Amino acid sequence: MLTVRADLASALREAATTRPGPGVADWLTTRPSDGHHVERVVELPLGSDVVQCADELMSWGVHRRAGLRVEADADVQIGADVVLGLRLGPVVVVAPCRVTSVVREEDRTGFEYTTLPGHPEIGVERFEVVHDEQGARVEISAVSRPAFLGSRLAPFVSRRVQAMITQRYLDAARAAATGS
Q1: Where are the beta strands (DSSP E) in the chain?
Q2: To pair with 111 at 20 to 30 A between CA atoms, which of 55, 128, 148, 172?
Q3: pTM of the model
Q4: Distance of alpha carbon 143 from alpha carbon 55, whole angstroms
């Protein structure tokens, strides 16, 4: 039996030869009516290290802190491929994605990635660390549809897993910002 890491490495090599579905990268702006939409924000406490949080986000550290196995061909940059692995009981879910947008501004750092074939969902997700006059926060937005038969037959399971992972991302970002 292959280890989780070997499965991710193989999936990463395969991801490099695939393309996202057409138009999927635009879903956060076009908002397809049949997609599942997620918008989550967590405020960071006063005195948080926003730079540290942004640095961890842009090096896949938030994803690792969230309990995912990460195999990436580079830190976050446009065109970088990443394969995320999540163990759910005896099953390892492998989720390949490609970074399609990056923002590095004075008050905002983040990226979007689009799912690749082999991901349990078809969609796009945005992660941003924001620091402006309203305070510091982490924002996550996603739009997705089930990609394979199992998730189409039981979409509530996919949504539950997505909600769990989104909360883990937010908790991990907060931990990165507070040094905990």
Answers
A1: 36-43, 69-72, 81-88, 91-105, 108-115, 121-132, 135-146
A2: 148
A3: 0.87
A4: 25
